[in-house]
Specification:
This protein has helices spanning 5-11, 57-73; strands at residues 20-21, 25-29, 37-43, 78-81, 97-101. It is of the alpha+beta class and 110 residues long. Bound molecules: adenosine monophosphate (AMP) and zinc ion (ZN). Residues 1, 4, 6-7, 46, 94 line the site of zinc ion.
Amino acid sequence: MSDCIFCKIIKGDFNTKFVYEDEKIVAFDDINPQAPVHILFVPKVHIVSLNELEDTSLVKNVYEAIKQVAQKKGINDYRIVLNTGKDAGQEVKHIHFHMLAGRKLNWPPG
Ligand code: AMP
Ligand code: ZN
């Protein structure tokens, strides 16, 4: 999708530093971090949200990537957030998983 900010990041248009990359997924720091660690895990294929995801095996790949990054960074306590749809707070319409860590996280979330 030519006007999708995450597709542009994946293409390398902004020279974003990836903290993780494999054939299906990239991960990079959120531009507006909500915790000391705030990493976005983004499938390379343009899919709007979980509602549009047909091959759910991709979720397994994402969680494997998350686990690898967590282990590499020595992070044991973290939260994964998948905002789906406007009322859930999804602003970027390209599926992505937030990894939040590095502080005590409140529950329930807002
Ligand atoms: P969501 O509200 O779940 O759609 O999350 C979108 C996230 O993308 C927000 O946390 C934004 O701060 C983040 N974001 C938007 N543009 C960029 C960008 N260019 N680079 C990194 N993160 C971004
Ligand atoms: Zn996209």
